[in-house]
Each structure stands twice: as C-alpha cells, then as structure tokens.
Design a protein that fits this description.
Blueprint: E1 2-4, H1 11-14, H2 19-40, H3 56-71, H4 81-113, H5 122-129, H6 152-166, H7 172-193, H8 199-202, H9 208-222, E2 224-226, H10 228-244, H11 261-280, H12 291-298, H13 300-318, H14 328-362, H15 364-371
Antiparallel strand pairs: 1-2
Helix pairs in contact: 2-3, 2-12, 2-13, 2-14, 3-9, 3-11, 4-6, 4-14, 7-9, 9-11, 10-11, 13-14
Length: about 375
C-alpha cells in the first residue's frame, strides 16, 4: 500500500540524517573498489561479476540526485541560493579531486622525466581540472576519460549541478521538473543533432539516473510511503534486475564503461528500485549493529578517488611475494577491507579538517555579510 504521511517542519526532523542512504553510499563505493581489486587479486570463491559491481556508479548517481534535492531545500527560490549551492558543491567535490589529480600529474611528470611515458598535453590537463570531457587517456571520443580516469563520473556530476543550479531560483518541485525536463529533452535530442564533445558525453542516457534520484526525493519530501512488503519486493526486484538482466538484451554489446539506454535500464534500473525501497518504505530503520556502517558513507568519496593510489601501495608490498594458490581470495579481502579503513582515516584526519578550514574562510564570511 502507498500512503501519504504528514511532513513535520520540526528542525530536528528536517535536518535528519538518512543513515540508510549513507550505508548505500558506502556500499556503492565498496562495489567499485571490489571491482577494481578483482583485477589485481582475483576473487574465486564465487563469480563477482554476478554482483554487477560496476552498477555502484549508477547507484551513486541515483543517490546524488536524491541528496542534492534533499540537502538543497534552503536554497530553492531563495536570495543567493544559486551561489550558496554552487559554492558548497564545489567545496565538497573540487579540493579532493584536484589533490588526487595533482598527484597524478606529478607522477606522470616523473614518468616522462624517466622516459617511461609521455607527458599529457596541456589541453588534457586543463580539461581534467575543469571537469570538461576530453579524451585524455587515448580511448577515443566514446570514452573521454580525464587524466584520473575515475573522474569521468565527476564530469557528469558537475554537469548535473550546473543544470540544477540554473533552475534553483524556482520553488523545489518546479526546479526539479524544469531540470528533469531539460535533461530528458537533451538526452532524446542529442543523437538527432550528432553533437560533438563535450555534449555528446554529457547528454548520454546515464545522466537520467540523477533525475530518478530527484524524483525520489520529491516523493520522499511529499510524504509518499510504501508498505514494508512492497518495499522488500522492490528491493528484491532491483537485485534481480542486476542479477538476471544483461546489457546486450537492450541494445548493442555494452560494458560498464558505456552510458547508453541499456545501462540506464539495467544498472540504473536496479539502482532506482533499491533507492526507492530504501527511501520510501514506511518505518524503515537501520539496525543498531549496522549503524557504524553509516559513517563509512561520509568517506565514500575519498574511498572512490583514493583507492587506486592505495592499491599501488599494496601492489608494491605484495608484488615481491608469490602467493600460494587460493590465497588471492584472502589477499582480495584484506586489500578491500584495508582500503576502506585507510580511506576512512584519510577522510577523518585530512579531508574533514581541510573542508572545515575552507568552509570557515569561504562560507562563514558570506553568512556574516548576508546577516549584517
């Protein structure tokens, strides 16, 4: 049964922390980490591909659409709302990404100095820093990855933020409708006009996963709730979509690196169903034993960006050892668990203090000027 519940305006409720969403963010990041760890330390106890680990990115996108609407409530139709929204988003995304990107550029400079690898052209470096899709890795225009290849997802994030910010001067639901309409029309019309980069990348169907998250946020804020039975059914359906449907069933062969309608239907479809169950199920709560996992959601961004660098350390340590047959499973588990722990420690001791320092200097002064 689907019901409507009264939404209270009490500050404590409106500022509630959705711990179950935090856990899903942690799960999404861990899926990507496990996918990449399996390349170096093969896990053989069961086929990891059955878990559709690449769909962690799609789950991230749906969560992002939800969180952006939910967290931006004070900015809709508010004076200075657009600049406040953009500043907070930039402070959340840019510092860590630029830190990681700079490390990568320094490493490439060292490799070029030693004659191991050519240094990337200036255009590749600038577009990577500015979140503009460009084929910096040599994969072709179909896969315009930046110098830090994981940054392709952030190129979508930043484009979504730009479109969303354009309509944040409207009331919440109108802003969501306008953003969704523009993205739908753009995605459908993109192939007609055969647009070049960067628009051919930005306007791929995968961008509609953000739209699905926004719609779920509107339903959540309106008080739409479903019964636990329906919620459980939706969650199981989401897992079934990931498990039993193949991307090639809905179009040309397409791997996790593509962004087509087949990915939107399979990877995105499962993510949307899981998010709908997590956000709309009536009375859902995180079990006490799982509540510590919610803290890992805060460090999911650091985990996503840092795990390739952490893997390099493990490869340097383990590369000198010949693992006995079957020990790769243990190595995989140790590496994944240790990577999660290291990224979480980095988030607590480095990322959080750095972000607080930036907020104190860029956001707090703006508040004082606005209230003076």
């Amino acid at each position: 049964m689907i019901t409507m519940q009264k939404i209270t305006n009490e500050p404590g409720v409106r500022a509630q922390r959705l711990d179950i969403i935090q856990v899903m963010r942690a799960v999404a990041a861990a899926m990507v980490v496990a996918l990449h760890a399996n390349i170096n330390w093969e896990f053989t106890l069961f086929p990891l591909h059955a878990l559709r680990l690449g769909a962690g990115v799609d789950l991230f996108f749906v969560i992002s659409g939800f969180v952006i609407v939910y967290a931006s409530r004070p900015y809709f139709a508010a004076r200075g709302g657009r600049s406040a929204f953009l500043l907070r988003r930039l402070l959340r995304i840019v510092p860590l990404y630029w830190f990681v990107l700079t490390l990568r550029v320094i490493a490439l400079a060292g490799a070029a100095f030693l004659g191991v690898k050519a240094f990337p052209p200036l255009q590749a470096i600038l577009t990577s820093y500015l979140f503009i899709p460009y084929d910096a890795m040599g994969y072709g225009d179909a896969y315009p990855f930046p110098i830090v290849d994981l940054g392709w997802t952030l190129n979508y994030e930043m484009f979504f933020y730009a479109v969303f910010a354009a309509f944040i001067f409207l009331p919440l639901e109108r802003a969501v409708l306008a953003t969704a309409s523009v993205l739908f029309v753009a995605v459908l019309s993109g192939p007609v006009f055969n647009l070049p980069l960067p628009f051919s990348f930005w306007l791929q169907p995968i961008i509609l996963e953000f739209v699905a998250g926004m719609v779920l946020a509107v339903l959540f804020l309106r008080g739409v709730r479903i019964s636990p039975l329906i919620g459980a059914g939706m969650a199981l359906c989401g897992l079934a979509v990931w498990t039993f449907l193949e991307l090639y069933m809905f179009g040309a062969p397409c791997g996790p690196g593509c962004y087509s309608f087949s990915r939107l239907l399979v990877f995105g479809g499962g993510a949307i169903l899981l998010m709908a169950a997590a956000t709309l199920t009536r009375g859902i709560a995180l079990p006490r034993f799982a509540q510590p996992l919610a803290a890992l959601g805060d460090s999911s961004y650091a985990l996503y960006l840092l795990h390739p660098f952490i893997f390099l350390g493990f490869k340097a340590v383990l590369g000198g050892f010949t693992l006995p047959q079957g020990w790769s499973n243990l190595a995989f588990l140790v590496v994944v668990a240790s990577t999660v722990a290291i990224a979480h420690a980095f988030h607590i001791f480095i990322e959080m203090p750095a972000n607080a320092w930036l907020r104190d200097r860029l956001i707090t002064p703006r508040r004082k000027v606005a209230t003076s």
